């Protein structure tokens, strides 16, 4: 642990201005991001007597080894920048709101040429309009099924849409008038886009306009004695009314508000929100947060509003006119200014005091309390077992701290061919799949490693060479400084602490607390030799042998035996099995690709791009064999000489000599004989 006095800024260095500050650990990882009206007074509060700080704050300042800050013009800018960096760096000491479940949304892909209505979960995408969230996916499908009668927007997947265009006939929904069938030209792209926009307007609460318009059209049709059309319009009006009535009226018409409820204790809190649009509850959502920093309810509410309304893909329509919260944020004026800027008009953040809104807030609070009880029931065992597992591993391997970050490596091959290796990452006992890595084992001559130990030595060497290089290059660089490069596998990376290709913090610059290899003493010795050669001394190492599930550490003649029922052994097994699964998957993919060959592979001047172009144009090698050189030359990217070389390679024995002579006259290097081209399956 570091003494905060060792990295405390000198007096007068910290400006007395609004800004955002970042604490970093000894590896350069951002562990905490905060904002302040006055950077000087806020940062000075962290460097008082450590014993007087809150326990969570004590842990943060003793884990950190440096502090940096950025001055901004206003407190509103600080609010936006703080959320942006929390999302970017994912600091371990900032509160993290986690959805208590994956809620489905009704999404309309307005950015597409022919927008599609569908159910979506997960991260929001730009150019897509979202409605919800809903408690159940079937609730969305029932609503969409009703509304497709009035707004026949496309709901099919890209594959179904493409197939319908190729066949020239719509799918079943097009025949029953629940799709306007833009795939076969029944409506233009602009007309279909307008249908999608009308659908969005209705879902956003503008139901009266469409009901009034349909009613007028129904009266006009009846006046013209077109009773069949009038009856259809009458049924459409009834459909819209049924879709509207599915949402209970809780507030006065025209009320747009998000109502938040917060329930918790010193360690955890649960949050619920009801989305009310046009006086009706359109959706409900919930989060659970672990209080890893010293925050009161007002701070939690401020962070919550940052997450709800600052996420990517949030449009102006997602911010209501009123935000009803249980406690006002400390900087409520700045929060209101920020939300008003997102919406484009005034937004009011307040605590409901009386009437229907206060009653609804009480209902939301009850839902939050119930969600917290349910979360504790579901997660207590899991949280306890993970903590126990990390503690058991720490004690068994005599580690100075619990291994919060574990990396596991495994090698997979088929009798020495297509050698692949995997690196999986577990943080706090949970898999971090975004940080998994794959390695293609090459060996000293590029033909693969001699055995598993040599492969393990190569993989560990390459991984920690990257660690040393990135640590040296990153240093104290700020966002995105430095030049880009490529690793030995051709994987692009940025030399600064932020990967410019993904916009996320680079993780290879951070060492694990524990390296686990799949295997016994030979594999452990190979990994230990690689770490020793690189001068890595602050990373623990062990191996897990499959046969007896023994834990081997470098230099010990006897393994460490963990009880079969222990949580520590169970965690190591899960890490090892995940590394094995990931390596097997990569190996099979390489093997399948390597064992698939094509007669086009050895034709001079015909690379993968041209092969794909030929196959797309002709559809198969059989049709390509029947094509003339002139027909092949019409394919984009193909020239006359290459076309003659293709004809020569695919020609039968009778025509091979003539094709070769023609190719030679044109200057192409045709193969001497059709038998020189490799036979085999065509690559997909």
From TrEMBL:
- Write down the SMART domains for this protein, in alphabetical order: GIYc, HhH1
Q: Where is the composition biased (Acidic residues)?
A: 478-489
- Which residue ranges does the record assign to the UVR domain? 208-243
Pinpoint the UvrC family homology region profile domain residues. Answer: 259-486
- One short Pfam name that applies is UvrC_RNaseH_dom
The molecular function terms of the Gene Ontology recorded here are: DNA binding; excinuclease ABC activity
CDD domains the UniProt entry points to: GIY-YIG_UvrC_Cho (cd10434)
Q: Where in the cell is it found?
A: Cytoplasm
Does Cytoplasm appear among the keywords?
Answer: yes
- Among the entry's GO cellular component annotations, what is one? excinuclease repair complex
- Which top-level group of life is the source organism from? Bacteria
Q: Which UniProt keywords apply?
A: Cytoplasm, DNA damage, DNA excision, DNA repair, Excision nuclease, SOS response
What InterPro entries does the record tag this protein with?
GIY-YIG_endonuc, GIY-YIG_endonuc_sf, GIY-YIG_UvrC_Cho, Hlx-hairpin-Hlx_DNA-bd_motif, RuvA_2-like, UVR_dom, UVR_dom_sf, UvrABC_protein_C
A biological process (GO) of this protein is: SOS response
Map out region (Disordered) in residue numbers: 478-505, 662-684
Q: Which SUPFAM superfamilies match?
A: C-terminal UvrC-binding domain of UvrB, GIY-YIG endonuclease, RuvA domain 2-like
Residues forming the GIY-YIG domain are: 16-95
Q: Which family does it belong to?
A: Belongs to the UvrC family.
Q: How does it assemble?
A: Interacts with UvrB in an incision complex.
| Reported function | The UvrABC repair system catalyzes the recognition and processing of DNA lesions. UvrC both incises the 5' and 3' sides of the lesion. The N-terminal half is responsible for the 3' incision and the C-terminal half is responsible for the 5' incision.
Recorded hits in NCBIfam families, A to Z, give: PRK00558.1-5, uvrC
Under PANTHER family, the record lists: UVRABC SYSTEM PROTEIN C, UVRC/OXIDOREDUCTASE
User: Which named protein is this?
Assistant: UvrABC system protein C
- Please tell me the species this chain comes from: Cellulomonas gilvus (strain ATCC 13127 / NRRL B-14078) (Cellvibrio gilvus)
Q: What is the lineage of its organism?
A: Bacteria, Bacillati, Actinomycetota, Actinomycetes, Micrococcales
């Amino acid at each position: 642990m570091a003494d905060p006095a060792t990295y405390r800024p000198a007096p007068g260095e910290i400006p007395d201005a609004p800004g955002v500050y970042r604490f970093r650990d000894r590896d350069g990882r951002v562990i905490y991001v905060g904002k302040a009206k006055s950077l000087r007074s806020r940062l000075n509060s962290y460097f008082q007597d450590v014993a007087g700080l809150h326990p969570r704050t004590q842990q943060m300042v003793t884990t950190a080894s440096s502090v940096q800050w950025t001055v901004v013009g206003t407190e509103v800018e600080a609010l936006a920048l703080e959320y942006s960096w929390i999302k970017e760096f994912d600091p371990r000491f900032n509160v993290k709101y986690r959805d208590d479940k994956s809620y489905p949304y009704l999404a309309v892909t307005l950015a597409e040429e022919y927008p599609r209505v569908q159910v979506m979960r997960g991260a929001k995408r730009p150019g897509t309009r979202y409605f919800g969230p809903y408690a159940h996916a079937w609730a969305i499908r029932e609503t969409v099924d009703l509304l497709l009668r009035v707004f026949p927007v496309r709901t099919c997947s890209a594959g179904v849409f493409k197939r319908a265009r190729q066949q020239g006939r719509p799918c079943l929904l097009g025949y029953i008038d629940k799709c306007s069938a833009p795939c076969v030209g029944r409506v233009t792209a602009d007309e279909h886009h307008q249908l999608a926009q009308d659908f969005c307007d209705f879902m956003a609460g503008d139901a009266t306009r469409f009901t009034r318009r349909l009613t007028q059209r129904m009266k006009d049709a009846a006046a013209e004695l077109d009773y069949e059309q009038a009856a259809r319009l009458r049924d459409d009006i009834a459909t819209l009314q049924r879709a509207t009535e599915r949402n209970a009226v809780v507030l006065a018409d025209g009320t747009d508000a998000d109502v938040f409820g917060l329930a918790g204790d010193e360690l955890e809190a649960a949050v619920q929100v009801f989305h009310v649009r046009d006086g009706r509850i359109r959706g409900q959502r919930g989060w659970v947060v672990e209080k890893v920093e010293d925050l009161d309810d007002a701070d939690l509410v401020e962070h919550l509003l940052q997450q709800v309304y600052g996420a990517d893909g949030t449009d102006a329509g997602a911010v209501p006119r009123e935000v009803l919260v249980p406690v006002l944020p400390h900087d409520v004026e700045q929060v209101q200014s920020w939300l008003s800027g997102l919406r484009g008009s005034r937004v009011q953040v307040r605590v409901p005091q009386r009437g229907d809104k206060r009653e609804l807030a009480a209902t939301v609070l009850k839902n939050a309390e119930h969600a917290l009880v349910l979360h504790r029931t579901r997660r207590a065992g899991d949280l306890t077992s993970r903590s126990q597992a990390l503690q058991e591993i720490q004690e068994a391997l005599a580690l100075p701290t619990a291994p919060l970050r574990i990396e596991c490596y495994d090698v997979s091959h088929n009798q020495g061919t297509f050698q692949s290796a995997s690196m999986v990452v577990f943080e706090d006992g949970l898999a971090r799949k975004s940080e998994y890595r794959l390695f293609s084992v090459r060996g000293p001559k590029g033909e693969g490693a001699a055995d598993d130990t040599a492969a393990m030595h190569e993989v560990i060497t390459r991984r920690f060479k990257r660690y040393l290089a990135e640590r040296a290059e990153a240093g104290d660089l700020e966002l995105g400084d430095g030049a880009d490069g490529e690793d030995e596998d051709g994987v692009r990376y940025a030399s600064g602490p932020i990967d410019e290709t993904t916009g996320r913090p680079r993780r290879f610059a951070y060492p694990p607390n524990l390296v686990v290899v799949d295997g016994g003493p030979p594999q452990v010795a190979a990994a230990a030799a690689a770490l020793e050669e690189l001068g890595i001394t602050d990373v623990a190492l062990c191996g897990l042998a499959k046969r007896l599930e023994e834990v081997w550490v470098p230099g010990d003649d006897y393994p460490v035996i963990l009880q079969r029922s222990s949580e520590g052994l169970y965690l190591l097994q899960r890490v090892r099995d995940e590394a094995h699964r990931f390596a097997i998957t990569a190996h099979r993919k390489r093997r399948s690709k390597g064992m698939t060959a094509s007669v086009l592979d050895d034709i001079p001047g015909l690379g993968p791009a041209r092969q794909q172009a030929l196959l797309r144009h002709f559809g198969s090698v059989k049709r390509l064999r029947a094509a003339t050189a002139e027909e092949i030359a019409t394919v984009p990217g193909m020239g006359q000489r290459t076309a003659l070389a293709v004809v020569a390679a695919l020609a039968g024995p009778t025509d091979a000599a003539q094709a070769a002579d023609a190719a030679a006259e044109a200057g192409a290097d045709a193969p001497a004989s059709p038998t020189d081209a490799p036979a085999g399956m065509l690559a997909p």
